[in-house]
Amino acid sequence: MSVAAFIVIAFMLATYVVLDGYDLGVAAIVPFVARSDREREGAMRAIGPFWNGNEVWLIAAGGALFALFPQAYASAFSGFYLPLIIVLWLLMGRGIAMELRGHFPSEIWHTFWDTCFAISSALLILLFGVALGNLLHGLPLDPHGYFVGTFARLLNPYALVVGVFAVAALGLHGAVFLVMRTNGPLTERARALAVRLWYIVLLWYALASVLSVVEHGVRLSWISAIPLLTLVTFVWLLVEIRRGGERRAFAASSLWLLSLMLQAAGTLFPYLLPSLTPSIPGISIYDAAPSPAALASALTVSIVGLIAVVIYGTLVTRHLAGKLSVGE
Amino acid sequence: MSVVLADRLQFAFTVMFHYLFPITTMGLAPFVAFYTLKAQRGDADAAKAAAFWTKIFAVNFAVGVVTGIPMEFQFGTNWARFSAASGSVIGQPLAMEGIYAFFLESIFLGVLLYGKDRVAPALHGVSGVCVWLGSWLSGFFITATDAWMQHPVGYAVGADGRIELTSLFAVLTSPFAWWQYVHVLAGAMVAGGFVVAGIGAYYVLSRREDALARRFVQSGTIVALVFSMLAIFPTGDRNSANVTQYQPVKLAAMEGLFASTNGAPLAIIGMPDVHARTILDPVFVPDILSFLAYGNFNANVKGLNAYATELWPPVELTYYAYHVMVGLGTIFVSIAGVAVLWMWRKRLFEARWVLWLLLLAMPFPYIANEAGWVTTEVGRQPWIIYGLMKTAHAASPTVVTGETIFTLLGFAGMYFMLGVLFLYLTLREIGLGPSASALAHGAELPA
After folding, report:
1. pLDDT tens by residue, B316-345
2. B203, B295, B339, B347: which has the highest count of C-beta atoms within 10 A?
3. What is the ipTM of this complex?
């Protein structure tokens, strides 16, 4: 049952990365593809109806972690006190910029909010990447599972490499979304950027993979098959961008991100907070779960609710999908 | 300053600021749903009203969301020992809030804001109702979480001291939670009613928006009257009964009662002197407290003196917060009552003083709602989970005072800025009015 709970959390976070990933990505690349107030507004409208629902995946995943693995929730959230509060502030800055921009009539305000939006979104992606990097790397934990390092300790080279990778990857994902969702000169610039980002991501992925091998050595297991999936979807992505298959490109990019998340989850399993020190085991899904009765109840309500959300979310989103014309 | 005090200050500050917005969204959601449905049936004025209130709702929702995320995270960041010990129970309603309420609210708000010309009219109409449902469900899960901390049910304490859930059903159907929840809803609806009536009164007083402004005043005052009465009876009364039964120390602090008394009097006003264990300059109504608490004028009500001082909540704050809430609640019934009476006599729109009253009443339901929560939460001290875990033992072991003060200052700065922006935007939308927002709403839609 702890394994099922791990799958639920991994599923929610992976969905978060794919969904909020594109609106975070759009935000981060807007300064590079939009050249006028109208174009920036067009990019905002492209994600406007969806971003809030997408972000709920993170909030709900936080809630689910609390219910399914209270011990891990408590250790992780208090251990990473400052970085997490900074994440909160960035989420606030971004949400406010997105929602309030349209209520201000002046272009000066628009420029201010757009800059706020782009910077806070890009920093968020970087921090999420750094967090993931640290999880994969292992953490300095005390025997009770509380983090005992410093903020600076979290900004180690490996984590930073993963962080920058995340920015490029979600930027690419966002560009592919903009190509699918908009029509206009903005779209063409997004397409060109997507190709450039594809090569950057490729280079960076190679670097990250080499670093991973250096850090951990090669561990052959079932997860070794996933990089193959990653590679296939990644190549498919470039093919579709070149060929103009816009929806298929977005599908490829989503699958590619999913495969990366699957790889990360497979590497972590069965730990939620892996320890860096060999003598301290870290917090595994078995240590952090509540009693079987409580876990069964939390799993049931989460799974039933999530199935409903996926169904009506998909139906409703389809109604709002389609092309937007964005003038210059 | 101890780290627990810093954590408490941060939680109190962030939750009190946050709660201003859910009050409005819970209180306005039925109005938004109502006008959206009416607009679907071709009512042109209702379409303007729907566009206007959706805009006000959306700004409140946005600020409510961004200030709400820190609440969920703070359980882990600042109260790790509490979360580790009780996450098996309180994690569940919190997770359910995310999965069952937030998705509903935010996905359908997207439809409401962006879908007018893109989705079928029926779906657009229904989306208003879904947003309403989402906001009220979210309120339920949060109140159920709090009610469990007030009066824990459906749990067992394991050998390792962890509190384990045994019945989610018991947690979600606890009568303590349901009475608290309907009281919270009544409070939010009083605020929603007064906001709609107050803004309507503002337009009538400034001779704008004609018929629509009158509709706002009429529907707002009726809602305010009905729910301000419901806030007192039965919901307020039943909550007091639950407090009397399960948290008698809190009751004594709320009422400022030190000595246990048969036929206890109700202090309408007066200032508690905790050192001397008495109330200064009180105005008493004899025997009423016994009656309110036990339905019997002679019943014995236990005073604070019957308990060790370590078990007292901060008496002054609990006492004043409670009295502010009850006092304002009574005033709301009178104001809404006068307005409805004048409406019935068909003189409301000539009686400018009543309209002024409605306009000026707008902020006070917010104060009453906040005061109610202060009573509940401060009155729960020294416990974080009543009878099970003390607040002093609940904070994160790894976080120090300096960190919390730093983040508290950060929150204070951000929320100050947010408050200024919120006021500017809301006042601007009110200034533009429903006619303008109907036009702007059309222009904002995706092409």
Report:
1. 999 999 999 999 999 999 999 999 999 999
2. B339
3. 0.89
Contacts of B69 in chain A (CB under 8 A): 59, 88, 91-92
**What is the rounded end-to-end Cα distance, in angstroms, of chain A?**
54
- Optimal mutation site among B61, B63, B77, B385, interface A, most CBs of chain A within 10 A: B77
- State pLDDT tens for residues B22-34: 999 999 999 999 9
- Residue A95 and residue B65: Cβ atoms within 8 Å? yes
A95 and B62 within 8 Å at the Cβ level: the answer is yes
If we measure between CA atoms, which residue out of B195, B194, B215 comes closest to residue B204? B215
Residue A252 structure tokens: 């490829």
Determine how many CB atoms are found less than 10 A away from the CB of residue A102: 18
Cα–Cα distance list, B92 to A65, A93, A302, A326 (Å): 10, 28, 9, 43
Residues A36, A37, A39, A43, CA torsion sign: positive
Res A218: pLDDT: 56
**Per-residue burial over A109-131, b = 16 or more CB atoms within 10 Å of its CB, e = otherwise:** ebeebbebbbbbbbbbbbbbbbb
Residue bearing tokens 């409406």? B343
Nearest in space to B152 (alpha carbons), one of B141, B161, B164, B140: B164
DSSP summary character for residue B306: G
Cα-atom radius of gyration of chain B, to the nearest Å? 23
Give residue B207's region: left, alpha or beta (phi > 0; psi -120 to 50): left
Distance of CA A130 to the CA centre of its chain: 11
Q: Which of A8, A54, A88 is nearest to B103 (CA)?
A: A54
Task: Centre a 10 Å sphere on the Cβ of residue A42 and count the other Cβ atoms it contains.
Answer: 26
- Closest-CA distance, B270 to chain A, in angstroms, reads 42
Pairing of strands B261-262, B300-301: antiparallel
Quick check: B42 contacting A, CB < 8 Å?
A: no
Token duo for residue B202: 């503002």
Q: Structure tokens of B295?
A: 């339905």
CB B138 within 8 A of CB B19: no
| Amino acid, res. A188 | E
Q: Tell me, what's the pLDDT at B445?
A: 39
Mutate to test the interface with B, among A23, A56, A186 (most CBs of B within 10 A): A56
My answer on whether omega of the bond before B93 falls inside 30° of 0, hence cis, is no
Q: Return the structure tokens found at A158.
A: 């490996």
What is the rounded distance in angstroms from the CA atom of residue B136 to the CA atom of residue B27?
Answer: 9
Residue in chain A lying closest to B425 (CA) = A103
Q: Distances from the Cα of A29 to the Cαs of A164, A171, A181, in angstroms?
A: 14, 6, 15
- Determine which helix (DSSP H) or strand (DSSP E) holds A312, and give its type and residue range: helix A292-320
List strand residue ranges (DSSP E) for A53-205, in order.
182-183
Average pLDDT, chain B: 92
What is the 3-class SS of A171-217, one letter each residue? HHHHHHHHHHHEECHHHHHHHHHHHHHHHHHHHHHHHHHHHHHHHHC
Q: Report domain extents, chain A.
A: 2-217+260-325
The C-alpha atoms of residue B333 and residue B310 are separated, in whole angstroms, by 38
Q: Is the pLDDT of residue B442 over 50?
A: no
Interchain CB distance below 8 Å, B75 and A325: no
Cα(A76)–Cα(A84) distance, integer angstroms: 9
Cβ within 8 Å of A, B 389-418: 396-399, 403, 407, 410, 414, 418
3-state helix, strand, coil in chain A (%, to 5): 80, 5, 15
Q: What is the spatial distance between Cα B250 and Cα B361, in angstroms, rounded to a whole number?
A: 29
- Search chain B and give the residue with CA nearest A104: B425
Q: Which of A71, A85, A92 sits opposite B66 (nearest CB)?
A: A92
Cβ neighbors of B121 (< 8 A, separation 6 or more) are B40
Give the pLDDT mean for B144-163.
92
Q: Mind telling me how many Å the CA of B198 is from chain A's nearest CA?
A: 22
pLDDT at residue B446, as a whole number = 37
